[in-house]
Design brief:
The complex is a heterodimer of chains A (275) and B (315). Chain A has 275 residues and is α/β, with parallel strands linked by helices. Chain A is built from 9 helices and 7 strands. The chains are: A alpha/beta (275), B alpha/beta (315).
């Protein structure tokens, strides 16, 4: 897909994310907006996965460890026709399969997540299986930066490099905010790249809200043969809506009517600028 | 009763034989292949063992990922650590995500005896019973172990199996038929019936022999599957006996005894009833057998409990 088209998609996705959150009256606004460009590039440019090959053993896997940003995932999966777009109207509604975290009851979702620090180990298992069977698939997993305080991530990181899983691509949505505040104030992560390097991963950093930078970074995978790939994608929480950007209050705040309209207008302006 | 091997040794032998015929069978282990008697498995089938070091959460997460790719996965680690430290991974990555991983707790219950509470698993039935979509099997002897491992291969749901490390007597006659979810009647009796699970079944069977010599008619049921629970077998036994005693190598909270009590109450079945389990206290120091004796889970202790219960019924 051409970059111009991807840019328009990112804006449309942001509108859908807000629509879903506004409609369901709940959701993780800031984190969905920070990672939506990553999902856009993965599903529209990088990964070999579609409703047609989802049950093929060779399809690329995606595990969203930061399960709370499920609105972003639902938005992209709907666009990729894993389910009808109208289904998004049932997000978090009584008896809907579209709960506030990813589950396999929704077509296109690989693994149930929600509790933090779980995705990486599961992705490592998928990548080991791929290596054992000589399959061409790759395993992508998106982690939040806040969840890196969970020790289970570091257990899995050790194993990923021990088994030389260069078919594993770990993406950190480095928006530097978690529910309490700055990740560095809560329990400092830096120097984050050094930590992952020390765990035996090949690390690249890029602007995680710059589609071209993401594409260029993914094109370099595997960064080093025999090493798991780790991308620190520097993002902005609430990206795309000026009054939500880098503001911890938008972690899981739902916009009121005025805020919702203001956000949509801003996105419509951005869209016009791209055309 | 003839003494056989430790159940976890039989588990390892059975699994090795099965895995030699199916390269999709994988073991994930946490520096525990020695304790699990899986060293030979690792030597003979190095491509079928995934070692992750001392990291139980990692064991389960990786096992779930392997299972998602169609592998038949046995996640093996001491029961005390696996079902406590990795409980959230069992709940979410395996049970909730519906990955039919075989979670195998070795050196289970009080196997580690004197090593103390950190190494005891007296919570695993209770913890896992409260989690939807994982079944629980605690084989009594070598026969049940072998059959449970074979049955687990194509079992469609997540499954927890629990094995101890002491040599187990054979409690079944040669022609028993094992099925996950179906209790096995070892002997029938009209005075008192022991409903036991796991490695305490042997103690119940020995107690029954002692009591028979006193002229009492004693039944013994191996309730090897805690979930799904064979309520019918329990109710049948309750209908044919004067008193019922449950026996388990587990905390009194949330295990076999409380499960049986709730079923009997809800079915309006009232009879003299006693739960023999580890009480809610700091467990006494001792080897496995000393702890069993201390809490009356030994053959003599069980026989005494039965006599008291029957006497109580007479007065």
């Amino acid at each position: 897909m051409q970059i111009e088209e991807l840019r328009l998609k990112s804006v449309a996705y942001r509108k859908t994310v807000l629509e879903v959150i506004k409609q369901s009256g709940a959701g993780h606004t800031g984190g969905s907006l920070s990672c939506i460009d990553i999902l856009n590039v993965l599903y529209n440019h990088v990964m070999n996965v579609s409703p047609n090959n989802f049950h093929d053993p060779n399809h690329d896997r995606y595990v969203q460890s930061k399960g709370h940003s499920v609105e972003a995932l639902y938005t992209v999966l709907a666009d990729k026709d894993f389910f009808p777009r109208e289904a998004l109207q049932t997000v978090e509604r009584y008896q809907s399969p579209f709960i506030g975290h990813p589950t396999r009851h929704v077509n296109g979702i690989e693994q149930n997540t929600g509790a933090l620090g779980h995705g990486l180990a599961v992705a490592v298992g998928m990548a080991i299986a791929g290596k054992k069977d000589g399959r061409p698939y790759r395993v992508f997993t998106l982690l939040g930066d806040g969840e890196l305080a969970e020790g289970s991530n570091w257990e899995a990181a050790m194993t990923a490099s021990h088994y030389k899983l260069d078919n594993l691509i770990v993406i950190i949505d480095r928006n530097r905010l978690q529910i309490t505040g700055s990740t560095e104030a809560v329990n400092a992560l830096e120097p984050l790249a050094d930590k992952f390097c020390a765990f035996g991963m090949a690390v690249c950093e890029c602007d995680g809200n710059d589609l071209q930078a993401l594409i260029t970074t993914f094109e370099q995978v595997p960064f080093e043969p025999g090493k798991p790939n780790l991308i620190i994608a520097h993002t902005i929480k609430g990206k795309g809506i000026s009054f939500m950007e880098d503001d911890v209050h938008w972690h899981h705040r739902v916009p009121n009517d005025a805020e919702y309209q203001a956000a949509l207008s801003e996105l419509t302006e951005t869209e016009a600028g791209l055309k | 009763m003839m003494i056989g091997s430790p159940n976890q040794d039989v588990f390892a032998e059975t699994l090795l034989a099965l895995a030699q015929k199916d390269r999709d069978i994988l073991v994930v282990t946490s520096d525990s292949r020695g304790s699990a008697k899986l060293t030979k498995f690792g030597d003979l089938l190095p491509d079928q063992i995934v070692e992750v070091g001392i990291a139980e959460q990692n064991v389960i997460g990786i096992a779930a990922g392997l299972a998602s790719a169609g592998k038949t996965v046995f996640a093996v680690s001491p029961a005390c650590f696996l079902t406590a430290r990795a409980l959230e991974q069992i709940k979410n990555d395996v049970a909730y995500s519906d990955r039919p991983v075989k979670v195998v707790g070795i050196s289970a219950g009080l196997s580690y005896g004197t090593l103390g509470t950190t190494h005891h698993s007296l919570h695993d039935y209770a913890a896992l019973r409260a989690i939807h979509n994982i079944d629980i099997v605690a084989p009594a002897d070598n026969f049940e172990t072998r059959e449970a491992v074979k049955a687990s291969l194509n079992y469609p749901r997540p499954l927890y199996m629990r094995f101890g490390k002491r040599s187990m007597p054979h409690v079944h006659p040669a022609k028993a038929k094992f099925e996950i979810g179906k209790a096995l009647m070892i002997r029938e009796g009209s005075d008192v019936t022991f409903v036991a699970t796991g490695e305490t079944v042997a103690h119940a069977a020995q107690a029954a022999e002692v009591l028979e010599r006193d002229g009492l008619s004693c039944g013994v049921i191996s309730m090897h599957t805690l979930k799904p629970f064979d309520s019918e077998a329990l109710l049948r036994a309750a209908a044919g006996t004067r008193a019922l005693i449950t026996v388990e190598e587990h905390s009194v909270s949330g295990g076999l005894g409380e499960r049986c009590a709730s079923i009997l109450m809800e079915q309006n079945v009232y009879l003299p009833f006693k739960i023999v389990a580890i009480p809610d206290e700091h467990t006494v120091t001792g080897n496995q057998m000393e702890i069993f004796v201390h809490y009356g889970i030994s053959p003599d202790g069980l026989a005494q409990t039965a006599r008291r219960l029957l006497q109580f019924q007479l007065t």
